[in-house]
TrEMBL record, chains A, B:
SUPFAM superfamilies recorded: DAK1/DegV-like, DhaL-like
Short name of one Pfam family: Dak2
Protein name: Homodimeric dihydroxyacetone kinase
Pathway where it operates: Carbohydrate metabolism
Keyword Phosphoprotein included in the entry's annotation: no
A GO cellular component annotation in the UniProt record: cytosol
Species: Nocardioides szechwanensis
Keywords: ATP-binding, Carbohydrate metabolism, Kinase, Nucleotide-binding, Transferase
Domain DhaK: 7-327
Length: 576, 576
């Protein structure tokens, strides 16, 4: 929802005032909107964009060199008045006329046409153009009834670049028409947005559903479907647009994958990878795409895909530099002397793991396989506990412990199984598992568990079957590695608080002659108790004070997961 | 929530793959992260930034000329591994060493320090620096325990600019330390974010509350307060930071007002206006501020204010050009020939209204005052109905009808009262009201109501008291103006559908000799019935087909508000 304001009735004025302050180098206010801070070049055609606010960067965010000369700024989701549109147009007129352009909405069409009448009566050559890119808003046979959504951006950009390049008003108007003819958009929404001062959203989409074709003001779409996977959504967006290839279109397109406000960059990039692949599979060449928030709808969840099929002229205009508050293309950053491109080196290489080089006897191989089995059991247990650990961690930390343990144990399992298959003994299996855990899981738990397993593996070695004392000594080595790296001590509310009682109990029981796996099971009981008892502790290392206070009363997720892993390992290895 | 993915376990890899595709001109992938597409300049110090993902543009969005050389990309909210950090650092090393820098989190500190050890063992001069800008995460006496949040951005930018400018590794490290010493951030959160694949948010903030000092992974803050107004929030943010002015600070600062993901640009600009004013009131000069999303937390609602106190060196480095996927400063856009700045012309001028020039008799003045009273009643009625009209409009439209009618009737009332006070008769009061409505409310209803009132006023004139026939004729003129402008006909599901039955009924009753206000009241009954009956209609003008279907069964909000206005006007004018 929209929360930040003093008086919702003054939301747009107050927003505009802050915008003008932040971008004083780019823009100044005029009655009805904003214009470039620099006076217009004599003889340049003016381009005025506009519509209601609530869509930033549309529309005031794209006023500047290479883009529009002015923006008319209406109230949230409301057309500006004819007087506002005429006022902004007058301010940018440099004697060569003005193109006023908006998305195709009844209010904008009426007000901007009235403004054009008024400007012409004053002797300013003014034209109006309405963008109609939204394929969901009317069938192809009624294309002039379609709404303008994120395709506003491609039309405004190319028409503005034409004006910057010195086209006359007829030429700028022609480019607007051409780029509109070549532009198609399909949008989807996952949840509504809330107008300033309202407590209920303007509209909602049921949980787990997607509104296909829903407009940027919540206008109903063509259907309500189950929430798709990213691949399914990419297919829907691409295939719908490719069913409407404009007349005369070639194989070069630009694309905008636009976020509506609450569907964030990471999600857009993920979706873009799938969209780009599908476009290329269809034989299209993608030129300078944009992935991000260009035409938003307050905090609405959703996104849209726009395609503009390029010809030589549109490609040149699309690629031209621009320098506006929200959109900058072309740079004066010092080029690197040796700015030669490097080849991609692949982002997803697998880190090297230790291969077992020596050939081991059957007992050592069997032991290695058992250790790999124990790591498999640990991974399975962490997958079960992911959500529980995440919630525990969220109370005082960043909530990533469950996901981190799943990532880590899964990586360890995979490396362990590969090592086993390559003939590794128990020590090498543990070393491979620890290295893979640290490398692939990251995070605090990753680096610590990794170091612990490597230390344990080093002590255990690849002898056929380590004795109970060797296991205990290996665990103490692992514990030592953890304390050196993590700088924590017992009582600091960390994984050490269940690991140390476990090792101590195991040590005593083994020395008393208890069978290793019986001793392990008893020690795991101690680890469980100790993990729960961390609820009474206050963390001391690497945590700021408010977190420390907050975590009191909650057991440490690292201590809990340590105890659970020790239990799972013991059960998997128990050969009694 | 985070919704777009195929497999949540592969979220980061898939995100990265789409990011690299979208910005292939800027970046290439290497194991563990991304680096600039251009090979590093020999002898340039490398700067590697990093941390978990989920914070875009942090951190991979700021790899490029003038900014970082590479970014290590961990899983969502999770430190990357030491192996990842070392891998990215190796890829950017150009013989002059590498500074690795992250926010101050235990996992990042451990992994990046391990990477530094490893790089040094390989003969690469590597250093690590942790940013500690979050004033809420530890008291000033324990400043090294503080987390790094949006202040990462100022530290990374200035250290990177130093490297670009040819500083050696000692110099780059010194700049990182200096800018960190000079940087302070306070963040607030209004609602949580949801990790990919999770169905519950990582944390929540109770409705109507604000978490003060809540971290970018949901780490608890210092207090939970009632949701403030924008002015109160600006005061809290500014005053808290100004209580911690760094040693040696002067009066020049830069600022980042950062959105966390769901607190959108319009809100940030509104807040910025208040923050900037308060900073200037405190005697500070603001240099090149940034307002937008620079360090996000998935779809978290909230924002943070960062201040960096500048000296000459930091100001130069902060102002240096940069060209990265998400952050570009300095432009090659063609400068305007006559690029002289224009003076601000004021964004909030009041449009001129018609003054009554002729001096009228007492009866005409009294009639003008009664009309102004009727417009006042209309505004009061629309204020009552705002929410109801908004919800009706949201079913098939963009939900702005209630807000638009409130804006419009309030503007009309204000202009009418001013005209009355200046001695206007009824016609001039109506004309002033209509012009103000159209100019200030915008939207479809604004332009139509404005034109209707102006036409009515023209017919009524400023004679002392118009007769009933003149009122009916004026309403018919208004109706005519609406149909010409709006291109709608009765039955198209618009305001005409209650206005026309009203006029017809009024006309008949007046002709039958019924007292005007009795006739008006009866006609208002007809208007109410007709407005409700629009539920059965399908809109025909300016609406796309899905909207038409969707609106069937719901009365038209324009017809409803028209009937309500007619009723309110009749009651206010009734002098029986």
């Amino acid at each position: 929802m929209t929360r930040l304001y003093d008086d919702p009735a003054r939301f747009t004025e107050d927003m505009l005032s802050g915008f003008l302050d932040a971008y004083a180098d780019y823009v100044v206010g005029v009655p009805g909107g904003v214009v470039r801070a620099a006076v217009p070049r004599a003889g340049k055609v003016g381009v005025v964009v506009g519509g209601g606010s609530g869509h930033y960067p549309a529309f005031c965010g794209v006023v500047g060199q290479g883009f529009s000369d002015g923006a008319v700024v209406g109230n949230v989701f409301t057309s500006p008045s004819a007087a506002d549109a005429a006022s902004v147009a007058r301010a940018v007129d440099a004697g060569a006329g003005v193109l006023l352009t908006t998305g195709n909405y009844a209010g904008d069409v009426m007000n901007f046409n009235l403004a054009v009448d008024q400007l012409r009566a004053e002797g300013i050559d003014a034209r109006y153009f309405a963008v109609t890119d939204d394929v969901a808003s009317a069938p192809a046979a009624e294309i002039t009834k379609r709404r303008g959504i994120a395709g506003d951006f491609t039309v405004f950009k190319t028409a503005s670049a034409a004006a910057e390049a010195g086209y006359d008003l007829d030429g700028v108007e022609r480019v607007a028409g051409l780029s509109n003819d070549r532009t198609r958009t399909l949008g989807v929404a996952f949840d509504g947005c809330t107008l300033p001062g309202e407590h209920e959203p303007l509209f909602t989409v049921p949980a787990g559903k997607m509104g296909l074709g829903l407009g940027i003001h919540g206008e109903p779409g063509v259907s309500e479907d189950a929430m798709p996977t990213a691949s399914e959504l990419a297919a829907t967006l691409v295939d719908t647009l490719l069913a409407e290839i404009p007349v005369g279109a070639g194989s070069r397109v630009t694309a905008i994958l636009n976020g509506l406000g609450r569907t964030k960059y990471e999600e857009l990039f993920l979706l873009w990878g799938l969209v780009a692949q599908r476009l290329r599979d269809a034989g299209l060449e993608i030129v300078q795409p944009e992935v991000g928030e260009l035409v938003t709808s307050l905090d609405m969840a959703g996104c849209s895909l726009t395609l503009m099929w390029l010809d030589e002229e549109l490609e040149r205009l699309w690629s031209a530099p621009a320098d506006t508050p929200a959109y900058r293309k072309g740079s004066s950053a010092t080029p690197t002397a040796a700015a030669q491109p490097r080849r991609g080196e692949g982002a997803t290489d697998t880190p090297a793991h230790h291969s077992a080089v020596a050939t081991l006897d059957a007992a050592a191989l069997a032991c290695g396989a058992r250790v790999a089995g124990a790591l498999d059991a640990m991974a399975a247990r962490m997958a079960e506990m992911e959500s529980e650990l995440g919630h525990l961690d969220a109370i005082a930390g960043d909530g990533d412990h469950g996901r981190g343990m799943v990532r880590g144990t899964a990586s360890a399992r995979e490396a362990a199984i590969t090592a086993r298959d390559e003939g590794a003994g128990p020590g090498s299996v543990l070393t491979a598992a620890g290295e893979s855990w640290a490398a692939k899981a990251g995070g605090t738990s990753g680096v610590l568990w990794g170091a612990g397993l490597v230390a344990l593996g080093r002590r255990i070695g690849d002898d056929s079957a380590p004795g109970a004392e060797s296991v205990v000594a290996g665990l103490r080595d692992g514990y030592q590695a953890l304390t050196e790296l993590g700088k924590a001590q017992p009582g600091d509310k960390t994984m050490l608080d269940s690991l140390l009682p476990f090792i101590d109990a195991l040590d005593v029981a083994v020395k008393e002659g208890t069978h290793l796996w019986q001793a392990w099971d008893q020690a795991a009981d101690r680890a469980d108790e100790a993990a729960l008892a961390t609820a009474a502790l206050r963390p001391k290392v690497g945590r700021a004070r408010p977190l420390a206070e907050r975590s009191v009363g909650t057991p440490d997720p690292g201590a809990i997961s340590m105890a659970a892993c020790l239990r799972a390992v013991g059960r998997a290895l128990d050969d009694r």
